[in-house]
Structures are given as C-alpha cells and as structure tokens.
Amino acid sequence: MLLAIFALVLVPNVAHAHRFAPSSLQIYEGESAQYEVLWKTPLQTTSNIPLRPALPEGCDIKQESEPQIEGTGVVKRWSLDCSSLDQGLIGAFVGVDGLAQNQASAILIYSYLDGRSWQQVLNTEVDTVTVPSAPTAGGVFGSYTVMGAEHIWAGPDHLLFVLGLVLLVVGFRSLLVTVTSFTVGHSVTLAMVTLGVFDYPVALVEFLIALSIFVLALEVNAAKAGWFARFPWAVALGFGLLHGMGFAGALGEVGLPQGQVPVALLSFNIGIELGQIAFILLVLATGFLVRRYLTAWRTRLEPIAIYTMGGVAAMWCYERGFSVLGF
C-alpha cells in the first residue's frame, strides 16, 4: 500500500521531473574585493516567494544583467564591489533567502583568486554560511555527497526505475547483482559526461529514461517471464548507462570545483548510491510488512504500484516526446 501511495504522490509532479534541480550561486573572486556573481534558479518553484541570494551589507552592485532563460532555469549575473569590507567576502555571511518557503536547496560555489574553490550546500535548515579563508577536501566531499542523495530523492523517474527493478527481481542475491549492475552503468556515463568525454541530446535522453521505466513496468506486469526477468543484471546495466546521463545533467548545472574534480565526482556518486540504498531498504521493508500483515491483499496491492508506475512513465513519454520534437 505504501508503494502504491508513494507512486500516486508522484502523479501531481509528472511534468516536473528534473525541473526542480538545486539552485546555484557561484561567486568568482577578483582583485581588490571585486566579484562576479552568477545566480541560477529553476523556472518553476513551489512557492510564490522567490529564491534570492543574500549578500552582506557593504557590497555594492556595479553591474547587473537582465534575467535569461537557460534550459529549465533562469540565470542572472552581476558584478559586486565589496571593498568597504575588511576582507571582502572572506568571513562574511552569504546565503539564499526563500529556501524554507520553497522546501528547496542550493549549492554555493566560491572561487578564490588563486584558482581554489569552496562549496557548501544550503537548505531549509542552513540557508546562510560564512565564507572561509580556505576550502577543504572534506567540505567538498560532504557537500557533494548530500547533493547526490538529494538529487536521486528529488528525481522520481530514477526512483521509479529502481522500484521496477525491485519488483522484477526474485531473490536477494539476484537483486544485489542487479542493483550493482545499475550502479556500474550509471557511474560510467556520469563520469564520462561530467569529464567531457562525450555530449548527448538532453531532451532525447530524458525521453529514453521515461521509456525505460514504461518498458520495465510492462515486463513486471507480464508475470515476470520475459527476457528482462531472465537477465535483470544486463537490463539494469544497459539502462544504467542511460540514467547516468541524467545524473550528469544535474551535476553539470552545479559544476565541479577546480582542483577537486575527483573528490566532487566520487562524493556525488556516493550520495546517489546512499539515496538509492535507502529507497531500496524502504521498498523491501514495505514488502515485508505487506507479506506479514496484509497477505490476503498482496495480489490486489502489487498491481496498483505497477500500473501507477507505467501510467506515470507513459505520461512522461508523452510530454518528453513533444520536447524532442521541439514542441
């Protein structure tokens, strides 16, 4: 029942998968406390209260650009003069207003004059931080791990695919091999796309991700007797390559810190895996409760999750298909 309710909760957000990526506040340090600021936030929000950078008093805006739409986000740039502050933005409070009202998160990236960078995830609990004098690898690792976990939990299409794998596979050992194959698949393309080995058409990949969920729902519904059920590890590996491009798109919107790309890439992937494992444990626990206390209802409850998964995926295919065609 919980699986079915979880799937049904996703229906109101059918048209918005991947459109609520974390906002990004990037600050580039220049000479004499001069700064270039880039602010990117999703077009669609969950509240009438806008998300806005919170910069310290004493910083004057020298130049400000008009908002521009880039993909599913709005980008704004401006130049700051913080020479009235003793150390510029070092030691000053920087944050984002409106995170709590929108139940959103943001990534703050501060690039120092010497090429180093520092990152911090801002959320509903911590929306303001002090800019440190030097970045640490531990800070990068923690920030990108949290961001990876948040991304997979905010991406219902990826979670629905994982749900399909759990429903398809019989036996814990087979499930472990299948999930590991999915991990290997999306880790490979996540790294390759992020490092610039190859590029891909975003709209087409988003459509194919939705199609993979729909096809998987059909196989689960077909009494688990098809080719997918016989070789689930191969299916998970192949579709994992596809889903990795979707993960890379989210990471590309935030960017990677110079000099700490391996740490950021590794920690983001670890965050994805932790979020994925937590979701799988939730599904398995729900399945245990159903078998233990709702045995008579089991055959009636499972189809609800399957048909809802297929229906949501079909609507994603319809919407994203039009995007591929340019409508």
Write structural notes for this entry.
- With 327 residues, this protein is of the alpha+beta class.
- It folds into 2 domains: 2-17 and 155-324, no CATH class; 23-135, no CATH class.
- Helix content is 53%, strand content 17%.
- It contains 10 helices and 10 strands.
- It has helices spanning 2-10, 99-102, 137-154, 156-168, 172-194, 202-221, 227-230, 232-254, 261-293, 298-324, and strands spanning 23-29, 34-42, 52-54, 60-64, 68-70, 73-81, 93-97, 106-111, 117-122, 128-130.
- The strands form 2 sheets. Strands 1, 2, 4, 5, 6, 8 and 9 form a 7-stranded mixed beta sheet that branches. A 3-stranded antiparallel beta sheet has the order 3-7-10, with no helix packed on it.
- Helix 1 runs parallel beside helix 10, helix 4 (156-168) crosses helix 9 and helix 6 packs antiparallel against helix 8.
- The longest helix is centred in the last third of the chain and has 33 residues, at 261-293.
- The chain is elongated.
